[in-house]
Design a protein that fits this description.
The protein has about 120 residues and is an all-beta fold. Helices cover about 0% and strands about 55% of the residues. It has no helices and eleven strands.
Length: about 120
């Protein structure tokens, strides 16, 4: 059974930082792409950042220079370091891992940035 467990969300003031973690079990994490998405109330779920099994990284324009995605395959864990947070970053953040055949989602963690 595949599980993705996220942690690290919370309430932070604008300009602050948070680090999200996503720990996977039941899959060979090192062979999968890992990504972070976010969904604000009433809006669609959008891609924030992605890191492939080969280490290629891409970011949404809205977070470039502020967020950093990384992974530790030995710990089956992915991370999203979020700096210089803005109120518009407020959303539920979801981790996702996928390969050519399967895609799995975490339960989501709330990030709230106050102005």
């Amino acid at each position: 059974q595949v599980q993705l467990v996220e942690s690290g969300g919370g309430l932070v003031q604008a300009g602050g930082s948070l680090r999200l973690s996503c720990t996977a079990s039941g899959i060979i994490f090192s062979l999968n792409t890992m990504a972070w998405f976010r969904q604000a109330p009433g809006k669609q779920r959008d891609l924030v950042a992605i890191i492939t099994d080969g280490g290629m990284i891409s970011y949404a324009d809205s977070v470039k220079g502020r967020f950093t995605i990384s992974r530790d395959n030995a710990k089956n864990t992915g991370y999203l370091q979020m700096n210089s947070l803005k109120p518009e970053d407020t959303a539920v953040y979801f981790c996702n891992t996928q390969n050519s055949f399967e895609s799995y989602w975490g339960q989501g963690t709330q990030v709230t940035v106050s102005s």
